[in-house]
Amino acid sequence: MTEFITVEQTRDFLLENDGFLLLTHSNPDGDAAGSVAAMYRILKKLGKNVAFSLDTLPKNLAFLAPEQIVPVFSDPFVISLDCGSAKQIGGIDGAEGLRENVSLSIDHHAGNTPFAKYTLLDGGKAAACELVYEVARSLGVDIDERIAECLYVGISTDTGCFRYANTTPQTHEIAASLMKTGFDCAKVNRLLFETVSKAYIRFESEVI
Questions:
Q1: Tell me: the pLDDT tens digits for 72-90?
Q2: Among 23, 128, 162, 164, which residue's CB has the most CB atoms within a 10 Å radius?
């Protein structure tokens, strides 16, 4: 049975342990990839041993995690991000047992089916990246341009560039705080919302 924990308890868990493996759901979207990439950089800033494994990212998200970071340690503390259930977890070819050994789940889906030892869950958040942002703030980690970019990707994609009903005043406040770090927000928005593949254009033309 999972134990639901707070942001502060999540902070303590991360500070007290080491050797983390970050995972997210199959076919990762912006929030999945952004939360993993941001948490990876946050934990590295704390001097932690951390790795992640992802399914292949869409071309417009590849800049978040250009290469897999393979763990060089055994028996990791597995952290799942943006996963509503264990069966959704991807990026674990040859290591299916990891689904049954998740130490911490950080998620924002109201329909979450608890599967981890500890769960940080807030169904009122627009994106898992909002929770990762709060954890980073609680840890006292400096949110630099790269971390901010990753978090912004997750928040902006899960809110449809702030158009969906899940967008809250706090969502805008977090996004504004991230933009103040100076990352190229316009470039990120072009990649996420204005770039389509030739194959998609051909498909769209056929439909029309």
A1: 778 899 999 999 999 999 9
A2: 128
Question: Tokens for 178?
Answer: 């991230």
| Of 64, 79, 77, 76, nearest in space to 28 by CA | 64
Beta strands of 24-116 (E only): which ranges?
A: 50-52, 77-81, 102-107
Backbone torsions φ then ψ of 128, nearest 5 degrees: -60, -30
Per-residue pLDDT of 76-127, as tens digits, reads 999 999 999 999 999 887 677 889 999 999 999 999 999 999 999 999 999 9
Phi, psi of 155 (to 5 degrees): -70, -45
Residue 130 backbone zone (phi > 0: left; psi -120 to 50: alpha; other: beta): alpha
Contact 144, 28 (CB under 8 A): no
> Strands 102-107, 118-121: parallel, antiparallel or unpaired by DSSP?
parallel
